[in-house]
Each structure stands twice: as C-alpha cells, then as structure tokens.
Amino acid sequence: MKKMTRQTQRRAQAQTQTMNPTAWLIAALTAFGLLIAMMAQSHARPAPESFADLAEKLLPAVVNISTTQTVTAHGQMPQGVPDFFREFFERRGGQMPQPQQRQATSLGSGFFIDADKGLVVTNNHVIQDAEEIKVILQDNTPLDAELLGRDPKTDIALLKVKLEKGLKVEEVSLGNSDKMRVGDWVVAIGNPFGLGGTVTAGIVSARGRNIQAGPYDDFIQTDASINKGNSGGPLFNLDGEVIGINTAIYSPSGGSVGIGFSVPSNIAKSVIADLSEYGRTRRGWLGVRIQTVSDEIAENLGLDGPKGALVTSVAEDGPAEKAGIEKGDVVVTFNDKDVSEMRKLPRIVAETEVGKSVPVEVWRKGKLKKLSVKVGELEVAEKNGTVTASKVSPSSSNVKELGMSLESLTEKTRAQFKLPEEAKGVVILDVEANGPAAQKGIRPGELIVEVGQKEITSPDDIKEAVKAAQKADQKSLLLLIDGDEGLRFVAVKLTK
User: Fold this and answer.
1) 249-286 burial, b if ≥16 CB within 10 A, otherwise e?
2) What is the pLDDT along the chain (496 residues), one digit of tens a residue?
3) List 151, 155, 217, 329, catalytic entry
4) 8 Å CB contact between 268 and 216
5) Max CA pair span of the chain
6) Taking CA 469 as the corner, what is the angle to CA 339 and CA 453, rounded to the nearest 5 degrees?
7) Quick one: which of 176, 183, 184, 191 has its CA closest to 241?
8) Nearest to 210 by CA among 347, 374, 308
9) Interatomic CA distance for residues 408 and 18, integer angstroms
10) Which residue in 125, 151, 313, 390 is the catalytic one?
11) Distances (CA, A) of 226 to 162, 208, 248, 488
12) CA distance 354 to 352
C-alpha cells in the first residue's frame, strides 16, 4: 500500500476541517444504516445444519391412520371372454357371477393436538366412509379411534382415542401460518406409502394457492416431499409448530414432483375448535352470490381497480338482505377486513362468529355505503335450503354494438328456451360468432336482466343504454345476465 504524501494529507485535513454539520449528519446516518443492516443480517435465521433435533422432538406426536371399509365388487365375466359367448351364456339362462364383498384398507397420517383428551387431527378424505379407524403410534401401538367430526369443505377431520393408563403420547401445537413467507424452511412428517414415520424437508414455495378443492382454498405450497399416505400429516416450521396439514399433491406420475399443498393452520384452528365442541362446523353466512370484479366491470362501476366481491343475487330473508345489501353492490370490506379479491370474502365470512353484528362497506352507484350485518350460520342455511335461494326482482331487435339479437319475453320465447314463468328481462335469441357478447361467453337463451345496473324489459331499453354509453364515450356496457349458472355481471365491449 502506498504511503500518503504530505500534499494529500494536507488536502484531507482541509476537507475534514471544512465539512459542514449537514455533511457530518449525513455521514453519521449512513454509517448507522449500514450498522442496522449488518445487525439484521446477522439475526436472520440461517439454514439449519441438521433437522435431527427437531425430528426427534416431533416424531412421537405424529401417527399413522389405518382405515377399513367393506366394498362390494360386482361379479364380471373373466377378461378376454368373447362377446358372442357372453350373449349365448345369458340367453341360456346362465347366472352371472354374484357380487362379492371384501375389506378394503387405506393409510394416511395424523397428529396429536391434545394428548390429555386423545384428540388427533387428520384429513377428511383419509377417514371418509371408514367403518373402522385405527391410530398407530410411533412404537406401532394400535389404538381404536372415534370420529368426533369432519369438514369436507376444508378436508379436515378430528378423531379421539382412548389412552390406557401409563400410555403417554406427545402433542404439537398449531402455529401462525400467516407469518410464513415464501422461502421459509418447513418439515413434513407422515406415513408415505405405509412406510411409517418419515421426515422430509423443504421450503414454502407459494402462498394462497387455489387448487379448486373447496370454497375456502388458500393452500400453502411446499416442495417438501409429500406422497400418498402423507395426507393428514403436519407441516412444521423450524419452531416445531404445525403451520399446515398436508392434503394434496400435484403429480402426473402419482409420486412426489415437489409440488405439495397444505391447509394453513389459521384455517384449521377454527374448524378443529368447532369439531371438538360441536362435532360439526359453525361457519358464518352472509346469503349472497358473488363474482369477480374484472377491470372492465370496475371501470363501469367507477371503482379505482378490480377489487372486492360483486353481488349477483341476494338470498331472500338472509343476513345480507336484512342488512340492506343489494344486487350490484361490491363488498369491499367485511368485519373491518379488506376484501382484496372475490374469493377472500367467503373465507372472511366463514371465520366470523355466528350471530355477531359486523360492519360492512359496499360500493354502490359510485359511492361507499356503510352497513351492519348480523352473521347467520351456513350449516343451518344449507339444511333449510336457503343458501342459494335468491329474490329476483313483444318485440325483437339486433344490437350490433353488442353482437347479439334480442327479443322481449313472450309465451313463445319462454317455451322455446324453457324459461320459467318468474323469469324477467330480455331474452337473447342469437349471438354473433366472435362478436363482443360471444367473447364473454354469453349464449342464446340467456336473459339480460339489467343494463348499467338498471332493470330492463325490452330490447329498446338496451338500445337506449347503448346510445347513452356511446355518448358518454364508454368502452363497455355492464350487463346482468341470468343463465344456467345463475346471475352474473358481464362487461361487454361496445363496437362502433
């Protein structure tokens, strides 16, 4: 290293002497920021050298689940028998092989959530239709299990075993799955292919996965190896807390390809509590049908972006109707929680205490409106058949701007498209191929109930709405369509 010359030393001393207080402050803050960053980096959890200590602690709490059920195998002719022989055999009054019953077994995983009460958590699909359920401990001790309750919507079941005196088992606790970040280490323990307690490790690959398994999908995705038999087993964080229940895998081959899905512990907590106390779930119910708010729908409704849940129908005498929620409202907050996207609303409502009055904010005709709703119980509504029940409040014309032909409701059109007597609106006779309506999946026989959130009764009403939209320089028109899948809002582009 070269020594500093006298001239350089004098220059450095001069700069130091002339540095103003502001410069000193900036330099000090910069140094402080670097120090904080170094401290934060030093406190970040490093990759573990081994999972051995964690596995040794957790393995005794994880169990194997074995189920048995009687299945009927219908008798069949042996494979390869020619068809003419089958026909000859049947014509001669021959008896086909009789149905036979056999015992079928299946395997899964589970874990003790309460050792004193003998409570074991697993997947619903592991024990579904089982006539006999056994919980097998780490030392291969089999215990008869009783099904306390199950929830197909989240694929969770709760079992209870009777522990003999002197028999001790370990339990694990549910952690906060919302704290898990993509990239965090996780450990899965289960019974893959019936091999018994098996430990695999990986990371959180993604959050909030929707795999179309149920109405409350919010899966944690992990690359920790999960295979057949792991279902119902726990997914742990490095503190030994259960942050997920391993439920499904994506696998073209049937084996692990590093894409597994776990029910987050924060969803499982309320389900397990309900199953333990009531033997069933008690979910909140709002009484609305909803759909996603697209960019075009948001533009038509005056929203600053695609968010919330758009109400397409309201159940008669349900909580939403009693609270004043209307068809066409966009629910943006529920119980002080933001509804950033449509599929979040069902989960937020389901997790809300039944019978509790909570604040709701809806976007209606360009303004926010605050309401209060008393949450109902979903299971009661399902039992009464009121979950999807809704209150649904001659000329023809070709509307080229929307790419469809329309006609008023008449006895002829009702009969032609098999429409019920209570149907209202304007019937769609034909849809132009590759036109604006066709591109949105609109089909002949469906009804247009509203245009721009205003009820219509004739094709002329729609023509007037098209003219008004064009005059206002709108790019699309918001239609409320009534079809086979129920009511839905569709923003159709306007062609010139």
Assistant:
1) beeeeeebeebbbbbbbbbbbbbbebbbeeeebbbbbb
2) 344 444 444 444 544 444 565 555 555 556 555 555 555 444 456 778 899 999 999 999 999 999 988 765 555 555 554 555 455 455 555 555 555 666 677 789 999 999 999 999 999 999 998 999 999 999 999 999 999 999 999 999 999 999 887 788 999 999 999 999 999 999 999 999 888 899 999 999 999 998 878 788 899 999 999 998 999 999 999 999 999 999 998 877 777 888 999 999 999 999 999 999 999 999 999 999 888 898 889 998 999 999 999 998 898 899 999 999 999 999 999 999 999 998 899 999 999 999 999 999 999 989 999 999 999 999 998 888 776 544 433 455 788 889 898 988 877 777 778 888 788 889 998 888 778 898 889 998 999 999 988 888 888 889 888 988 888 888 899 999 998 878 899 999 988 7
3) 155
4) no
5) 121
6) 45
7) 176
8) 347
9) 87
10) 125
11) 29, 18, 8, 39
12) 6
Q: What are phi and psi of 42, to 5 degrees?
A: -70, -25
> DSSP labels for 234-268?
EEE-TTS-EEEEEEEE--SSSS--S-EEEEEHHHH
Please give the angle made by the CA atoms of 120, 122 and 128, to the nearest 5 degrees.
115
Query: Domains plus CATH for the chain?
Result: 178-207+218-267 (2.40.10.10), 284-384 (2.30.42.10), 396-493 (2.30.42.10)
Closest CA to 337 of 314, 315, 308: 308
Contact 492, 437 (CB under 8 A): yes
Six-digit token pair at 402? 């929307």
**Where do runs of H (alpha helix) occur along 279-419?**
295-301, 319-323, 344-350, 378-384, 411-416
| Beta bridge partner(s), residue 284 | 377
- Three-state SS across 468-485? HHHHCCCCEEEEEEEECC
Which amino acid, 329? Answer: D
CA–chain centroid gap for 482, Å, is: 25
Q: What's the pTM?
A: 0.68
Phi-psi region of 453 (alpha: psi -120 to 50; beta: other; left: phi over 0): left
Residue corresponding to tokens 């209060």: 372
Which of the residues 205, 225, 231, 256 is marked catalytic? Answer: 231
Residue 302 structure tokens = 């005056």
Known catalytic membership, residue 155:
yes
